[in-house]
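Here comes my example:
=====
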Amino acid sequence: MTQTTNTMFDPTQFILGTFASNCSSGMSVTKVPERWVNSWDNNLKLAKLLDDAGIEFMLPIARWIGYGGETNFHGGVLETITWATGLLTQTKNLNVFATIHTAANHPVVVAKQIATIDQISRGRVGLNIVAGWNQPEYEALGLDLPTAHEDRYGYAEEWFGIVKALWSRTEAFDWETAHFHLKQALADPRPAGRIPILNAAGSDQGREFAIGNADFLFTPAIDLKRSTEEIAALKTQAAAAGRSIGVLTFAHVVCRPTEQEARDYLQYYAQDNADWAAVDNLVRLQFAHAQSFPHDLLALIRDRFAAGHGGFPLIGTPEQVADGLIAMHAAGFNGTTLSFVDYAAEFPYFRDTVLPILEAKGIRRPAATNANM
C-alpha cells in the first residue's frame, strides 16, 4: 500500500481545517434559513472543495444529543467513523479525523476501526480523543459521568494505552488495569504509519494527557496575548516531558468585500437570529462539566458561542481575516479550524481571497505544492 505523506505533520505550514461540518448548523448557533445543513451531499461537496484547495483536515464533533432551543442545535449529527471513512474514499490529500468518546467506544474496537480506515485512506485518518464532559450525553448512553477530571482522564489514559499497545505489539497480550481486563488481545491490521492524535484539553489533567499522548492539543483562543503565554507554557511543559506538541485552535469566519458587510451579517445571524435558548444550554453545560473555556470571560464567550461555538472571530475583509490568521500564527498556534454559517457557499470566497495572502506571507504553500507532497 502506498502511504500519502501526511500534511498534518509539516512544521512549515500554518495548517487549516474545518470543524463540525458533520453537525446540524455547524458551529453557528443561529436560526437563519441559510445555516449549514449537515447532509452527506453537503459534506462531500465541502470535502472536495477543501481537498482541491490544499486544506489539511476536517475535524468532526461527536454528539449523541442536541442542545435544544428552536433549532435543537447539534441534534442532527453524522457519526464520525462512518463519516470520515466515506470522505476519505472520495478525496486524495485531505486528512479526516474521527472523534471518539472513550467512555462510549471500546479501545480494541477503535484500534481496529482506525487501522482499517488507515488502509482505505492510505494514511490520511486522524483520531480525536474525547475524555467526556457532557452529562446529558452520558445519560442518553446509560453511563455515569465521573465528576472528577482525574477520573475521566485516568480512564482515557488506560484506554489510549491499550490502543497504542494494539498498534505496536505483534504478539497477543493481557492487559489488567482498573477499568480494563483484556485476555490475549491482538490487533491485525495495524496502522502502516503515524496516526495524528488530537485532544482538546482545558484542565490540568487534560493537558497532562494531551502532552503525554497527543500530537495536537486543541484549545480556545479567547485573547491572543493570553494565548501567547499559554502556548509557550504548553510547549515548555511538553519539552520537559521529552515531547513536542502542536497547538491548534478554532475560529469562525465572516469574510466579505467590506468590513461593514461582514459586521452586518454577524449582527444578523449571531445576534438578531441567534438561538439564545440553545446558546445558554451549551454555555451552561460547558461551564458545569468542562474546563475548556476560562470562566472569567463568560459574557464575551456567550456572544462568541452564538457566532461560532466560542471560536476566535475572524470578521471583515479578506485582508482583515488574513491578518487575524497571521496574528494567530505569530501567537504560536500551529493551525486552526475554520467554520462558516454555510461552509460550502462561503469557503470559495475565503479560498480565492484569503489563502493567497497567507501564501504571500509565507505561512502556507499553494495547493498544488501540498498535492505533490
